[in-house]
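Listing S7. Sequence submitted for prediction.
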Amino acid sequence: MHTINCLVAIGGDLQNKHPRSKVTVPELVLLRAIHGEAAVQNIEVTGNPRINQLDERERLMRHYPKHQKLVNDIWRDSGGEFPKDVRRLNLNSALFAPAATAQHDMADQLEDEQVAKTRKVRTPKVEPESDDDGDEDLEVGAAL
């Protein structure tokens, strides 16, 4: 699940922005629902740690007690599984950090690194070729 750094305009007030770090994708969705669609800005992907879905749901319920209904709505609307990838939210590119084009590249790179860590590379077992051509093989130095 991606984590991000961002600025949150409290109540949508662009003059009242607060920095947030290690925000998960479901928390990003929740913050946008609470403060407004354009209230979360300067989004920058910072990591892709493994986060248990149920643990994250419980954390959000504890951290945002006034918005437990929203947490449940996000959970339900996502089919019982929170969104994990910020790119899947189809956010306006203006909401991303100034290096917005690099942001998606960074997300791809983080995902590739995560896959590489979990994927085991298997090398195929190579069997020696059989020399079964019907001839008896001569030993080196044997007389013809």
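Caption to Listing S7: primary sequence and predicted structure tokens for the chain studied. The chain has a mean pLDDT of 80. Strands lie at 3-9, 17-24, 40-47.
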